[in-house]
């Protein structure tokens, strides 16, 4: 049993940590509910007093969504639809392809599998900035610029980190289970779809949540590959609150819009939380 | 139901590890075959080659007269029961059992869904019926809605049996299916499997390292060691006429006693004994080193005051021995005795007069004894029994 002091200390640390992490979020909430002037003042002067909204301007939220992009409402709805399409495709693509490749590395014996696995792991060491320009040139030559393809297609070729995670997990599934499936008339694809995928649900939950959050919030790739306004995703559309010199004129609306775009990520995390946390701590499959 | 023919079947792993060496065996239709041997003898590899889970390095495997070397497991029409059950953990018992059938439907694909809906429904209903019937036979009907993790070991094994049974394959393969169960359940399931075979008359190949299981289940058994088939015959044959010293030692409990010695002038001579070999059984035995093998039930322990003197008789020999230990089994007892430097076990009727450390006379009966060429795997030296 821990002593009372020890417990108090642990709680104090946890509370301090929570406050530190929640502070920016609360600041966003506070600013999003202020009038334009108060918000401007708060961003310039700061101060504890400005953290408590005295006269909450709830209409900032619909206003923000309405004013996003160049056309009223349409900008937001377009961006929302774009984000949803890109994110769902990228998430599904990453989970499906990573588990398929992970199964191949874990279960299939083929010449060169080890070197190939090492090369794949090696790609994790490569910073994204290094491949940015070659990738842009590649996609331009393919005629994919200003389409969703550069954001979606690469997802269907797996992600090194998730492949690694799937491989480790699948390697622990008893071999006899796959053999039973082979005797039951399954080919490799059937084994993957009907046995491996259902058994790797925790890894799929992690892959889905991480990929969803990353793709939903990704700013750089949509900014590089999408050029027309009606193709913009939410993260790019938020940029319309900046003026041409890079300054932010309506900071309260930017915060309101930013908070709104966070909602799907939070909901998804809450929904997948059980699977997700189980997956983080779980290394074995019950045989 | 089908015959299985193995012709010079070999399995070589990388690094020249030979798991199975040129096994040539023919299993009859509807026969219960047990592959038995110590771990690493290649019995599971042989089974897996029949199943198609292991590539065949040499020779051919034929099921029902058709060579299946190149066929994937799903096309061989075999079902297998695994040691660790291998039930799909995410499916209920019912789905586990139906899985193989669902995948083999004629109208299972999209075309069935779109164009042959009536046939599709009929197929699904037939599968449901089959699963239910099989579950009833095995007494697992109340478990159909449960997940495997909510079942006990015995129940899981029953479900695994059911999953194989429901498919009505040509051949059933069992890979040590009872070794994860406790002793009592094992005996129960053993009887159930035997009964299942009697009822279905299906061809079954069963792998075990437990010779007792092999003896009780098999119509014929294959005794293997280091990838080589040592003997293929009925349990009775393997017990009564073992091909070599290994089979003799492997089959039967307690293990056969072996005495190293030599054949000399129509007699077996060891350090402290000399037994005349009946010429009727071992005619014209050439002189040379040999091993005498005697089953524990062929030894009689004589409690006699004049222990110390050895005598020979036509049906065996009595030799002085010291009691080393006594294990009481209830109705009988196993007595370990030392004859010279050799430890031997006798299985005898209860005898309260025996004490550990006491001197006794042990009568070695030659009625069911065997002579083997010297060495660990020495072949049985031909006796007149074989002539018949």
Number of strands of chain B: 21
Percent range of helical residues of chain A: 55-70%
Number of domains of chain B: 2
Report the total helices of chain B: 10
For the largest beta-sheet of chain A, the strand count, sense and barrel status come to: none
Return the average pLDDT of chain A rounded to an integer. 87
Topology of chain A as a string of helices (H) and strands (E): HHHHHHHHHHHHHH
* Structure classification of chain B: alpha+beta
Structural class determined from secondary elements of chain A: mainly alpha
CATH architecture of the largest domain in chain A: Orthogonal Bundle
Give the radius of gyration of chain A: 23 Å
| Assembly state of the chains shown | heterodimer
Strand coverage percent of chain A: under 5%
User: What general outline of chain A do the C-alpha atoms trace?
Assistant: globular
Terminal Cα separation of chain A, in Å?
A: 35 Å
Distance between termini of chain B? 33 Å
Give the name of the CATH architecture of the largest domain in chain B.
3-Layer(aba) Sandwich
Radius of gyration of chain B: 26 Å
Give the strand order, joined by hyphens, for the main sheet of chain B: 6-7-8-3-9-10
| Overall helicity of chain B | 25-40%
By CATH, the superfamily of the largest domain in chain B comes out as P-loop containing nucleotide triphosphate hydrolases
């Amino acid at each position: 049993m821990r002593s009372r002091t020890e417990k108090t200390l642990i709680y104090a640390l946890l509370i301090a940590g929570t406050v530190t992490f929640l502070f920016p979020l609360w600041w966003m909430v506070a600013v999003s509910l202020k009038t334009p002037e108060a918000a401007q003042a708060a961003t310039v002067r700061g101060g504890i007093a400005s953290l408590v909204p005295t006269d909450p301007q709830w209409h900032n939220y619909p206003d923000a969504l309405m004013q996003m992009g160049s056309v009223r409402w349409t900008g937001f709805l377009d961006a929302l639809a774009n984000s949803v399409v890109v994110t769902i495709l990228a998430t599904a693509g990453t989970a499906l392809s990573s588990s398929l490749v992970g199964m191949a590395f874990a279960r299939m014996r083929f010449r060169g599998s080890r070197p190939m696995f090492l090369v794949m792991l090696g790609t994790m060491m490569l910073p994204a900035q290094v491949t940015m320009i070659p990738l842009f040139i590649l996609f331009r030559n393919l005629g994919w610029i200003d389409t969703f393809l550069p954001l979606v297609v690469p997802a269907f070729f797996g992600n090194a980190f998730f492949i690694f995670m799937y491989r480790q997990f699948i390697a622990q599934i008893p071999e006899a289970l796959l053999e039973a499936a082979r005797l039951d008339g399954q080919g490799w694809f059937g084994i993957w779809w009907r046995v491996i995928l259902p058994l790797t649900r925790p890894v799929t939950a992690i892959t889905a949540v991480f990929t969803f959050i990353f793709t939903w919030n990704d700013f750089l790739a949509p900014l590089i590959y999408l050029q027309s306004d009606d193709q913009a995703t939410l993260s790019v559309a938020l940029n319309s609150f900046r003026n041409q010199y890079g300054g932010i004129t309506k900071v309260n609306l930017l915060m309101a819009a930013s908070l709104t775009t966070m909602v799907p990520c939070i909901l998804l995390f809450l929904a997948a939380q059980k699977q997700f946390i189980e997956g983080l701590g779980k290394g074995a499959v019950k045989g | 139901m089908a015959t299985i023919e193995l012709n010079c079947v070999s399995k070589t792993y990388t690094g020249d590890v030979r798991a199975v060496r040129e096994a040539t065996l023919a299993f009859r239709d509807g026969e219960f075959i047990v592959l038995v041997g110590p771990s690493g003898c290649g019995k599971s590899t042989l089974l897996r080659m029949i199943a198609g889970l292991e590539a065949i390095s040499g020779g051919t495997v034929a099921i029902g007269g058709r060579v299946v070397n190149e066929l994937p497991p799903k096309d061989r029409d075999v079902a297998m029961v695994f040691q660790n059950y291998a039930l799909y953990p995410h499916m209920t018992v019912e789905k586990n059992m139906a899985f193989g059938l669902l995948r083999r439907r004629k109208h299972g694909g999209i075309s069935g869904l779109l164009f042959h809906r009536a046939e599709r429904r009929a197929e699904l209903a037939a599968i449901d019926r089959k699963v239910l019937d099989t579950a009833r036979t095995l007494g697992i009907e109340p478990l159909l809605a449960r997940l495997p993790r909510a079942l006990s070991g015995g129940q899981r094994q029953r479900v695994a049996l059911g999953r194989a049974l429901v498919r009505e394959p040509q051949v059933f393969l069992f890979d040590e299916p009872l070794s994860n169960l406790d002793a009592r359940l094992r005996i129960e399931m053993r009887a159930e499997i035997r009964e299942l075979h009697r009822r279905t008359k299906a061809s079954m190949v069963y792998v075990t390292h437990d010779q007792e299981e092999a003896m009780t289940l098999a119509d014929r058994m294959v005794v293997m060691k280091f990838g080589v088939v040592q003997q293929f015959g009925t349990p009775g044959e393997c017990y009564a006429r073992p091909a070599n010293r290994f089979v003799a030692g492997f089959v039967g409990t307690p293990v056969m006693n072996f005495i190293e010695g030599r054949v000399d002038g129509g007699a077996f001579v060891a350090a402290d004994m000399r037994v005349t070999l009946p010429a009727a059984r071992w005619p014209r035995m050439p002189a040379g080193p040999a091993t005498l093998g005697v089953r524990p039930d062929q030894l009689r322990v004589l409690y006699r005051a004049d222990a110390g003197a050895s005598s020979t008789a036509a049906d065996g020999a009595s030799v002085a021995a010291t009691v080393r230990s006594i294990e009481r089994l209830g109705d009988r007892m196993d007595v370990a005795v030392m004859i010279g430097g050799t430890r031997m076990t006798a299985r005898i009727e209860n005898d309260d007069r025996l004490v550990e450390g006491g001197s006794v006379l042990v009568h070695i009966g030659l009625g069911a004894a065997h002579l083997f060429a010297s060495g660990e795997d020495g072949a049985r030296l031909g006796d007149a029994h074989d002539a018949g």
